[in-house]
Structure formats: C-alpha cells, structure tokens
Amino acid sequence: MNRIRCYLVALGICLLSVAGLRAVVADPGGFPGIYEKDTPVLKQSGGREEGAEDAAEAGEKEAEKTPADNPDIRVLLLSTGYQNEAHPLVSVSSGAGLVLESGTGQEEIPAGQVLDIRPDDARFAGGVIRLRARDGGDLTVHSIERGCGQPSYQGTLELRPTAEGVILINELPVESYLCRVLPSEMPASYELEALKAQAVCARSYAYRQMESFGYPEYEAHVNDSTDYQVYGNSAAQETSNRAVEETAGQVLCFQGQIVTAYYYSTSCGRTTSLEAWGTPPDAQNQYLQSVEVGDGAGDYEKDLPWYRWEAKIPVQTLSDLAGLNLRQDLGMLTKVEVTKRGPGDVALEVTFTGEKGSAAVQTENKIRRAFGGSGYEIIRQDGTSAASGSLLPSAFFTVEKSGDTFVIRGGGYGHGIGMSQNGANEMAKKGKSCQEILQLFYPGTEIISN
Questions:
Q1: Which residue, 73, 128, 335, 385, shows the most beta carbons closer than 10 Å to its own?
Q2: Which keywords fit this entry according to its UniProt record (predicted)?
Q3: Is the confidence at residue 35, as pLDDT, over 60?
C-alpha cells in the first residue's frame, strides 16, 4: 500500500505540474521554522574550486524521459552572487539561435547574437517575454556570473518586468534541472553510487518543492541558490548526468510520502534529527534521526579534514561577535557553555554570559550564527586552516575558556541532518550501493520509481 500511495503522490505532483495547477505556500522564498538550514553546497577542504570541472566533458547529453514522467520545474534565477531577485539587464544568446515570443509577436535572433532586455523593453507591453533556443539548444545568460562563468540553461527563459528590474525564470524538465544541480552540489569526480544517492535526494527534494510555489508572485517553485538547491553554478558533467539517468524518476519515500531529503557536507561520525531545528520527533519525520556514520572499522569520514576541527577565539573577539550576532550588549564574556544537547550530541542551546548579562541561543543554525564573523581561524584535523565565516562549521562542538581565549572543538561541516555527502562518497568507496547509502542516512525509507 505504501508503494502505491507513494506512486500516486509522485504521479499527482507530475499532473499538477503538467496541468499548471499550483498551490500557494505561506512562507515564500525560504525555510522558516523546521526548515531553518545552512548552505547545502558541498565544501571540500574549506571551499571547493568552483568551475574546476571541465564543462566540455559534459557535452549536451542530459537525462531524457517522457513528458508525463518529467514535469517542468520553474526556477527563479538570482543575480550574480545570488544577491537579488531582479536584474537591471538580462543578456542572452544561443549558439543555435533564439526564438523570442511575447504578446507583440515572435521574432528570431541569429545564432551567437547577444540579446539585451531591460525593464523598459517595448516588448513587455504584451506581457511576459519567453526565450528558447532553436533545436533545443542551450541558452547562455551573459549578465550573470556563476562558478562556471556565464551559465547556460536548457528549456525556456521567461522574463517579467518589475519596478526593481527584470525577473528571470528558467522553466525546464526536472530531470534536466537535476543535471545542473548535481555538479553544483557534489563534485562530479565523486563515486558514481554517491552521485546516484545525491540524485535521488535532489529529485525527492525538488518534487516536494514542486507541490507549491516558493514564489507565487512569479509562479516559480524555487530559486537557484542555497535557499533551495544550488542550480547552474557548475556546468553539467558526464558522470553526474549518468547518475541522473541511472536513477531517472526515482524518489525516496517514507510511509507512502516523498520525503524532504536534507543533506550537507561532512558528518562528525553521527547525524542528528529535526530537533536541531526545534521540531520534535513524530511519526512523519522518523526517517530523519540520529545515526552512526561508520562501520566496524570506524567512522567513514575519520580521515577527512572537516571530521574534526578547532577554533581558538580571543575573548574580546567573541564578545564583539556575540554582541553583534545576538543584538545584545553582554559586555566582556566570562562564560560560554552548551546548556542543552540533542540527538547525536548536537548543541541545542548555548548560553553566553557576560559582565552585563546573559543570553541563551537555541537551534542549530542560530547557534552557529552566534559564533559567526571574521577575526579567527578554523583549524582542520589535517592542519590546514580556513577563515571564520558567517556560521560555525557545525553545531557538534564543545567550548571551554582557557585564559583569554575560548577554545571550541568540533566535528563535521553543515547542519548534520540527513545525508552527509562526504560520508556517502566514503561509503561508495567501500563498495556500498546507492540504496545502502540512502538506507543508512534515511532509515525506514524506500526508493520508488514514479
């Protein structure tokens, strides 16, 4: 019955997308409450080399399915640096030539010619502008910079004028979308079974988002940043395309429902549950529970740089950061302690005590953000260092005061809920299959083909 129910859910989502009947979400554009999360993009050794993959190796081969099994997803493309929804200028070209459609008619743009569209373009008088490449080719957006340079997209680009600028939406089949999500979220050089696990997670996540519009005002399901899944930051790659193709249509289900398959970079040897985001366990979220990421030989990631890390923060520096991040003047800090822990030993509450008062911070993301800012370094277990950022690497840590320094010792990189991408890769190196990887990180789930 669960298989049938999950199949019907997946089919229902497909039909909704094909028919264009979308519901409206209450909280567009983010993950409030239980979805509070940090960046899901995999950082390898403190920051992957963006664009390092050879885009030429990808060719133009992307996953193909029948339209009924491959619904369209609508992705809001943000500006360079993912800073804004609107663009002052949109510049597009295609090596195959462009076809422009608007309420004022249709026109063709020669191959290779760059088309510039601003908010006051006369063609907006007829409504939205839609661009597609002749012969199903790619559309290159020259007015956006991503890790791969100027990104290219399949499908259709829809342009809408607003007072702030041009809204740019990419509408394309979800399987083609995944071909540019996978290399943006996990290095294409990773093991095939790990890439396949990532593909199933990313597809499940996408299907859940396609149940409604994250941006109802633009009829867009998601954007292309870490608010959802990173899309188009790296060009499609042959190995990640293969992972999408070999898992085509496969989603992860729990008790008959497609799951929201959260993932992150590196574990500390254990994962945690949604309690880290303030959500108590219930019958529907039991697939997100704390598990051991290892076997009889030890933790799978024990030799990786981010498995363990340490930060020594001067008292003055942390006092300043805490004041800024907590928006409360606590004075010079005298004590910082983890006052509550959750599954996997994750910090659920940290109390900052200073000469002028104290403040308690709850939930994984807010705790990590409380320590965020510049002024100190994170030393990984291999001796390499990374500059401190807006978030502490993870909420799996201890803290103690030693003289005029707070010493934080932690492990892992990311929120710790769901699948560790590096853990998945290490499992694949040991011969574990996509299914075995997913069953470890999402206990009780099963892979269903829609």
A1: 73
A2: Signal
A3: no
Nearest one of 11, 42, 440 to 264, comparing CA atoms? 42
Tell me how many domains the chain contains: 2
Return the sign of the alpha-carbon dihedral for residues 176, 178, 182, 184.
positive
Q: Are residues 187 and 293 in the same domain?
A: yes
What's residue 6's pLDDT? 54
In this structure, the answer to whether residues 346 and 369 fall within a common structural domain is: yes
Q: How far apart are the C-alpha atoms of 71 and 12, rounded to whole Å?
A: 11
Check whether residue 361 and residue 236 sit in a common domain. Answer: no
- State the residue for tokens 């990640």: 240
Q: Is 431 exposed, middle or buried (0-12, 13-18, 19+ CB in 10 A)?
A: exposed
- CA dihedral angle for residue 194, residue 197, residue 198, residue 204, rounded to 10 degrees: 180
Same domain? For 395 and 438 the reply is no
Residues 187 and 252 in one domain: yes
pLDDT for residue 416 is more than 70? yes
104 domain-assigned: no
Q: Based on the fold, state whether residues 57 and 183 are members of the same structural domain.
A: yes
**Beta bridge partner(s), residue 361:** 350
- What is the residue range of 354's domain? 309-410
Identity at 210, one-letter amino acid code: M
The residue with greater pLDDT, 139 or 450, is 139
The whole model's pTM is what? 0.85
